[in-house]
Amino acid sequence: MENIMSEVIGQRHTEQFELFENIHVEVNKKSKVCPKCNILKPLEHFPWKSGQQIFRRENCRACENYLNKIRNELRNKHGMPSEDYSCPLCGGTVETLTKAGGERAGYWALDHCHKTEKFRGWLCHLCNRALGCFKDNPETLKKAIDYLNRELV
Fold first, then answer.
1. In angstroms, what CA-CA distances link 42 with 36, 53, 61, 62, 67?
2. Beta partners for 28?
3. Which pTM value belongs to this model?
């Protein structure tokens, strides 16, 4: 029984680590790997987060520029949601949401598939971040749902 439990626990840990396999790797204090292009680059290639010199963005400047271009093209093509729009995941509206994305970001986050660059819709910032934390992976989301629905000990 003990061997079976240790195998199950080992498998769960392996699955958990797989969730984070593409998180940036800081090789030393002078360089890190960009999770988008998977290239080891000097830290100077990673812009400061929000202009504050506290920590650097996860993606390199070239990948950030590319992502911003894609987002802007999708915004121009699809426009902003209407005033009575509600988040398709949590149901939040302009009246119920705080500006979770920051003063500049507004209420809605543009959601798109990172593999195909196709527009999926508008989400509130919290729901968009939640999907991002799960790497937009349906299998991982199913596991999270199963986890939340399991019987508590």
1. 15, 16, 11, 13, 20
2. 31
3. 0.67
Give the Cα separation of 152 and 44 in Å (integer): 47
- What does pLDDT average to over the chain? 81
- What does each C-alpha distance from 55 to 51, 101, 141 come to in angstroms? 9, 18, 29
Q: Which two tokens stand for residue 97?
A: 């949401």
Q: Are 140 and 151 in contact (CB under 8 A)?
A: no
Nearest one of 79, 87, 124 to 106, comparing CA atoms: 124
What are the angstrom distances between the C-alpha of 118 and each of 12, 36, 64, 132?
A: 32, 17, 17, 15
Nearest alpha-carbon partner for 44 in 58, 56, 28, 26: 56
Q: Which amino acid is at 110?
A: L
Measure Cα distances from 96 to 92, 104, 108, 121, 132 in Å.
6, 18, 12, 19, 22
Cβ–Cβ < 8 Å for 42, 31 = yes
pLDDT at residue 135 tops 70:
yes
Q: Is 50 exceeded by the pLDDT of residue 147?
A: yes
